[in-house]
Amino acid sequence: MSPDEWQAHVTTEAALAMGRWLEARGRLDRPIASLTRRDLECMASNAISRFIVLSSERRTAAPDKEERDALDLLLMG
Which of 14, 17, 31, 39 has its CA 20 to 30 A from that of 48? Predict the structure, then answer.
C-alpha cells in the first residue's frame, strides 16, 4: 500500500471510529452543532486511538526505513 493509499485508509478508519461512537450512543442523526464538548472529545479520542493502532501496525510493516522513521517520530510525539 502506497503512503497515499495508507493515508486514505487511516482517514476512513478514523471516520468510522467516530461514527461507531456516535451510533453506539444513538446520536448518529444529530447535527454536529448539537453535540457537547465531551461528545466531541470522546469522538476525537476514538479517532486518535484508531490512528495510533493503524500507525503502529504500519510502522511494523513499513517497506522502507524512511517511512518507519517518519512513523517513529509521529508516534513518539
Answer: 31
Find how far residue 20's CA is from the centre of its chain.
12
Model confidence over 22-38: pLDDT tens digits?
888 887 787 888 888 99
Q: Domain tally for the chain?
A: 1
Quick one: pLDDT at residue 21?
Answer: 84
Rg (CA), the chain: 15
18: domain range? 3-76
Is this model's pTM higher than 0.70 or not?
yes
Quick check: 33 and 11 in contact, CB under 8 A? no
Residue 19 neighbours by CB under 8 Å, 6+ apart: 28
